[in-house]
Specification:
Order of helices and strands of chain A: HHEEHHHHHHHHHHH
Radius of gyration of chain A: 22 Å
Shape of chain B: globular
Helix content of chain B: over 70%
Shape of chain A: globular
Order of helices and strands of chain B: HHHHHHHH
Oligomer: heterodimer
Number of strands of chain B: 0
Number of helices of chain B: 8
Chain lengths: 289, 233
């Protein structure tokens, strides 16, 4: 029976190995067929061009992912951290009993529901606010995607940061208060800095969620393949994830186009692995005081 | 200045709560008036976009995915907590891969399912391919929750059982698992939530055909996919 448990325990190892092997097996040859530089740095994505050579450049999508994630971090992290401090050190017990399940519920809302909300509420609101002044065609923009992702990463950031702020030894806080610091000062100047690596871990995990989110972004980002600059946040943008999900449906089986989409997945996967590595390094730093 | 920061934390807490309530309220107020009996008629037609087939598909997928994933997840947790040497090389590797799995975005699972289950194993886009993909996706969740609930059982239970002459296996199945059940169920419920809400991993693995499923190899569309499809059309 021990053997049976052991075999089951191998399942996660086998899964990760299979995922790596098959993504690379299908993706890498395509990258080399297109040319790594042309693929990663190419500014044009025209996979189905009829009259000219099709081009597969995913730089706009890589940048799109980075912009949208950056926007989400700029919005979600301050609010998330403040909420975490609020939950761990500020709010009265009855409020906490209400807020904690609310945050858990927020983490459980499916991404299509967020996407639907963004599509019906955020995008139209952005269009109403800026549409006429900036001559926009729709509210589905980089801004809408950033705001929506900022909301979506809140529960992740909050719950990890809260756990880590709570894990700060009580003596530190008490010491600060004994030295004459007010409750507020002790929390912000002593407890929060002491939880730094945990807070960083929360942010990194938030980045991971934002960069990997697909459906919600697909529904509000506009999905144009054009190169964008960060200040063009009122225009539509396409991320790596949405590139895959938008076009996978009509690719020809075994075509270069399909390979290029899988290769986009490989690039995304590499991003995620780097983020995971960073996260576990931060976590390890926290365990050893 | 410090009290200003304090006010900010209150503002942030209230904002978070407000966002959730606003969103849920928005969906309910927009959605509830459209819930009519005709939505649940067995057949999907162009005039009556019934969600009943999607509902049935979702239920089938939840059950199938759990049947695949729960034994693996629970057994892995049992191995990690009850059998393995703590801190051994293998345990570290299992931990690491589980963490990696938990961090992989669902679209990557979707791509993998499409390459491996749908094309390589020749299951085409089917409920089985979708369930297998989802099973890998929820594996880390089940492992982690089961592990935590196994760890929370006091060692005195194990010692008591051993001293009464029970072997390790009997201890696991008769003493430890029954007392760990609530924690395991909590994990399973979280997993059901993820299965029901998943879209990106399923678009290219279960197909997007709306019909009553007739077996594990038929294509289908879950409720979440249904929402997505209707929204982007």
């Amino acid at each position: 029976m021990r053997a049976a448990f052991f075999m089951a325990a191998l399942a996660s190892i086998i899964s990760v190995a299979l995922i790596c092997v098959f993504l690379l097996y299908q993706g890498l040859p395509t990258i080399f067929e297109i040319g790594p530089f042309k693929f990663l740095m190419g500014r044009l994505w025209r996979p189905t061009a009829q009259h000219s050579e099709p081009t597969f450049g995913i730089l706009p999508m890589i940048l799109g992912s980075i912009y949208v994630t950056g926007g989400a971090i700029a919005l979600g992290v301050p609010i998330g951290l403040l909420t975490a401090v609020f939950m761990a050190r500020v709010c009265p017990k009855p409020v906490y009993r209400f807020l904690k399940p609310a945050v858990n519920l927020m983490a459980g809302v499916p991404s299509v529901i967020y996407g639907f909300f963004g599509m019906m509420f955020l995008a139209p609101m952005i269009f109403d606010l800026f549409g006429e002044r900036f001559d926009m065609v729709s509210g589905s923009t980089m801004l809408a995607a950033s705001v929506l992702l900022g909301i979506m990463i809140l529960p992740t950031v909050i719950s990890i940061a809260e756990t880590n702020i709570r894990a700060v030894p009580q003596e530190l806080y008490e010491g600060a208060v004994a030295l004459g610091a007010s409750h507020e000062r002790a929390v912000f100047k002593v407890v929060l800095p002491a939880a730094r690596s945990g807070v960083m871990a929360a942010i990194v995990l938030g980045v991971g969620r934002a960069i990997g989110e697909t459906m919600a972004v697909r529904m509000v980002a506009g999905n144009q393949t054009a190169m964008r600059m960060p200040y063009e946040f009122l225009k539509g943008v396409r991320t790596m994830t949405t590139n895959i999900v938008m076009e996978m449906n009509y690719v020809e089986y075994g075509s270069l186009h399909e390979g290029a989409l899988i290769a986009t997945g490989v690039v995304l996967f590499v991003f995620i692995l780097l983020i995971n590595l960073l996260f576990s390094t931060l976590n390890k730093g926290r365990e050893k005081p | 200045m410090d009290w200003a920061r304090f006010l900010l934390t209150w503002a942030a807490g209230i904002f978070t709560l407000f966002m959730l309530i606003y969103m849920v309220g928005f969906i309910l107020i927009r959605g509830i008036p459209h819930i009519k009996p005709s939505l649940f008629s067995p057949a999907y037609t162009v005039d009556n976009q019934s969600l009943f087939p999607a509902l049935v598909t979702t239920l089938i997928m939840v059950v199938t995915t759990l049947v695949i994933a729960v034994p693996f997840g629970v057994f892995t947790a049992i191995y990690l907590v009850e059998y393995s040497k703590r801190g051994s090389r293998l345990v570290q590797v299992i931990r690491m891969t589980t963490e990696t799995l938990a961090g992989i975005p669902s679209i990557v699972f979707g791509l993998f399912g499409y390459i491996f289950f749908a094309n390589l194993l020749g299951w085409r886009r089917s409920i089985l391919a979708g369930c297998s993909t989802l099973a890998i996706m929820i594996l880390p969740l089940i492992i982690r929750t089961t592990e935590e609930s196994l760890k929370s059982i006091p060692d005195s239970y194990r010692e008591g059982s051993f001293s009464l002459g029970a072997g390790r296996l009997r201890t696991v199945f008769r003493v430890i698992l029954p007392s760990a059940m609530p924690g395991i169920f909590a994990g399973i419920i979280l997993a059901v939530g993820r299965i029901v809400g998943e879209t990106a991993a399923l678009v290219y693995t279960v197909g997007n055909v709306i019909k009553m499923p007739d077996g594990l190899f038929s294509q289908g569309r879950t409720l979440a996919l249904h929402v997505y499809q209707l929204a982007v059309e």
